[in-house]
Amino acid sequence: MTKLIFFGNGPLAETSLSLFQQSPHFQIVFHAKTKADLAEVQRLKSADPDLFGVLASFGTLIKQDLLDLFEPQGILNIHPSLLPAYRGASPIETAILNGDQNFSVSIMKLVKAMDAGPIYFQATLTPSDFKTPFPEKSEIYHKLSSIATEWLINHLPQLPVPTPQDHDQATFTSKFDTSMSLLDPQKPALALLNQIRAFQGFPKSKLVIGQQECIILKAHLDTNSGPDQRAKIKVLCGDNHYLIIDQLQPNGRKPMDAKSFYNGYMKQSTIPQM
Known about the structure:
The chain is an alpha/beta fold and 274 residues long. Helices cover 26% and strands 24% of the residues. It has two domains: 2-169, Formyl transferase, N-terminal domain (Rossmann fold); 178-271, Roll (Methionyl-tRNA Fmet Formyltransferase, Chain A, domain 2), CATH 3.10.25.10.
């Protein structure tokens, strides 16, 4: 039985934690969710040096003295990018915004410098691995976390020698905030779709439709040569293509499909380009 301290929260962590809990060969001794849990991590690891550490989207700096307790393997960090690309807080979101069609995951040794540790494992998913050409963020998180965790389940406690990163090739991502939420119809339709996908959950994508400010939850590209007359809400974008709204949420209301919103809130179905 391999015993673990698990660090993390959010969709990447949820999938990984669930898979470890389902495995008969692993025991989660402690789940650290916030900075306040690190004192207990230090106590447990000091008492039992054989504990392994796995981290997925923890979002809190771990100081060097705690990192040192997990040597030589280190705390194993599941990071959803092909490092050294997309280091930082928003690798999947940035990849979606950039129009990437391949999505990757790395398992690295956690070091003090952000996402700079040597790499134990990497894998890449291509469009054929997803249900649709434009997969939702939740599906990307789930599949990448599953691949990484299954690798850890199959290889812990015996790990290969990790490979150092080429730091000269590093690229970085940043945090997003609600000031970036408003959709700009002057942009191309694909760029708006990618923003909606990337900002699912947080910071969300918003658009004023008629008199209502709405969170846009799901949309798709209009692939017809002309606008789809069956669509209830069509956004004419800067490239003269239409974005079709499928699901949205008016302020203070529950999510609804486009037909329900149209019947309840509006009489015209096309949002003109601004």
